[in-house]
Amino acid sequence: MAIFLTGDCHADFRKIYNFADRMELNENDYIIVLGDMGLFWRNDRKDADVFIRDFEERYNFNLYFVDGNHENFKILNNLIIDKNGMGYISNHIKHLRRGCRYNIDGKDILTIGGADSVDKFRRVEGLSWWREEEITSKEIEAIAAGHYDYILSHSCPLSIFEENKMYLCTLGNIVDDNDEEFKKTNIQLENLLQKIDFNHWYFGHYHVDLHLDDKFTCLLNAFVELK
Predict the structure, then answer these.
(1) Poorest-pLDDT segment among 54-68, 111-125, 162-176
(2) Contact criterion met (CB below 8 Å) for 38 and 7
(3) What H or E segment, with its residue span, contains residue 62?
(4) Counting runs of H as helices and runs of E as strands, what totals does the chain give?
(5) H-run or E-run covering 23
(6) pLDDT > 70: what percent of the chain?
(7) Of 220, 98, 76, nearest to 152 (Cα)?
(8) Of 100, 205, 86, which is closest to residue 216 (Cα–Cα)?
(9) How far apart are CA 29 and CA 51, in angstroms?
(10) CA 110, CA 193: separation in Å to the nearest integer?
(11) Burial of 95 (0-12, 13-18, 19+ CB in 10 A)
(12) Domain spanning 3-226 has what CATH number?
């Protein structure tokens, strides 16, 4: 049994297929995508339904994901919740919901998806952008303080972003770097950071593979196994 993490897919699942084939993953294994899975985008779900059907015919490993900012939240937030508190999509595909605590293979995991779209002013609400992408203070307040083995998110705390801005600011030319309108989620994750302890925090969003320090790692194309 193994749990692997990777970063944004944006509805391009070739890296998932390639890794699963190479590693010969089975029903005891997991891949968790750290946001911007892009499975649900169209309101009619036609794109998602094709992928889900193909995946279930070809594979039996477990494919989970936290939400990012490029997701159709109208669909995500109306999924049936299974007995484990996950959004049910198919037998092997599940959404790890925001602010939820999961035990996966004996590992205590907090999932807290969401991020701010720096290009939201170019998008259409309900069609290519959903305001539910932003983490709220209520969602942070509802999370229990204490220790977790792993934190899995899409964005990262503000202090981590500021300390590593030169590596993480891959979209910095689009908006004013000092505009807090695009840091709302970073600020909420900073509030979370102040109330919890953890072994390691993994996130995506910034389109780089980078091990920042002994506590934080950003992922895009790499796969990391949780030990």
Answers:
(1) 162-176
(2) no
(3) strand 62-66
(4) 7, 13
(5) helix 14-23
(6) 94
(7) 98
(8) 205
(9) 19
(10) 12
(11) buried
(12) 3.60.21
Write out 75-102 in H/E/C secondary structure.
HHCCCEECCCCCEECCCCEEEECCCEEE
pLDDT at 63: 98
pTM of the entire predicted model = 0.94
- Dump pLDDT digits (tens) for 12-38: 999 999 999 999 999 999 999 999 999
| 10 CB neighbour count, 10 Å cutoff | 13
Q: Are 143 and 185 in contact (CB under 8 A)?
A: no
Phi, psi of 80 (to 5 degrees): -65, 135
150: phi then psi, degrees, rounded to nearest 5:
-140, 145
Pairwise CA distance, residues 158 & 183, whole Å = 7
CB 98 within 8 A of CB 65: no
pLDDT at 176 over 80: no
| pLDDT tens-digit map of 193-203 | 999 999 999 99
Beta bridge partners of 100: 111
Write the pLDDT tens digit of every residue in 71-96: 999 999 999 999 999 999 999 999 99
CA–CA dist 14, 127 (Å, integer): 25
**Domain boundary assignment for the chain:** 3-226
Measure Cα distances from 197 to 5, 85, 145, 200 in Å. 20, 22, 8, 9
Residue type, position 69, single letter:
N
Instruction: Look at strands 93-96 and 62-66 and give their pairing.
Output: parallel
